[in-house]
Amino acid sequence: MESNHEKERKLEDETRNLIARLPKEIALDIVSRLPISSLIQFRFVCQTWNMLTRDSRLVDLHLSCASKINPCIIFKTYHLRKEQLFFVELSDNDDDEHKLREIQIPFSTSMPIFRVVGSCNGLLCLSGVYDHEAVYIYNPFTRQHIKLPNCNELEVNEVVYGYGFHPATNEYKVIKIGYYSHVYYVPWCFHKSVKKDYPLSEVHLFNLKRNTWRNLGELPYKLHHSPGVLVSGRLHWVTRFNWHLDRLIVAFDLSDDTFQEVPRPDFNVDLFHCRYHLAALRGCLCACLLTSIGENLEIWIMEEYNKKESWVKQFNIGASSIVSQHLPVSYDIWRTSLQKGSVKVMCLLKNGDILLDCQGGILIAYSTDEKMLKIIHLHGMPNSCQAIAHVGSLNWIANPIYLA
Hints:
alpha+beta; SCF_F-box_component; F-box domain-containing protein; F-box-assoc_interact_dom; F-box-like_dom_sf; 4-stranded antiparallel beta sheet
């Protein structure tokens, strides 16, 4: 009589053989629907399955499927000595308690303190906080990574990074905007500096296909430190208040490497007392306004890109839209987040809910149908962290320079 162990082993063998007997196109289609964490484990079952995951067609198939389901949420912890990455895969069931799992960073010794510049097609861009020259492109699930060559520049005081991909050129690019400490900025005269021999800023662009940095010159805007929001092949930032009193939206086109202003909504509020950030929903650029009295979050959507008249105030999320088993706790979190201005619109979930990051790592889903909010319960959540929506993928940069 067979033991339970023998039965399990026999079932595993039958499953392996079944996958091996299937036509390759069907097998790839089945495997492409696995979550990224399951797909990575799938690699280690047997040699046949490992070879299947290395088929170049699977990368595109899986990335296409992964972009249609709930994203992974990656959390970056804040620590004085060494920062970490964790991830969670959100299920379709709102009542599930999700467990965080740690991501190993192969280059953590050389860059222990970092910021997440952005996520695109399953690849993260990380930059050093204290070492402005340290920039990595990294797939957190396959652990493939590259360090970009140093960018020769003067000593900078502040750096704003951006990272994205343009499908028309099939190129990944990293933009680095350095602001110099020897310049005395005058808000009402931002084209001038005390030391005329030096620029106010300097823009450098790295093309991962060409493996080169290129100097694009000076930028007459001081951009907010938040990651650039990628929409329509362009990265978008909001300018900082000390240079532009009306807080403009500035875009960088990844196809022709140029900057331009994008019209923002008519909020009809004083932006000195209110703040807004950018997001991407349904492939459209969004402007998310936190009102001055901390009562509402307005989400404006630009339905037709670069058309001012196409801005529409789509959602108005108030402090009372809370649904939870622990109503007082939920209400306090949301109300405090609004008042502190620590609410960030992250992404759209598969069921149509809008995912919000409150106070750095507390996730709340806003139901666009029911006009209500609900906290997403996470097990093992760090005290304070940065949350990033990420599409888990096997993707890597097909460039012989890096793969050699």
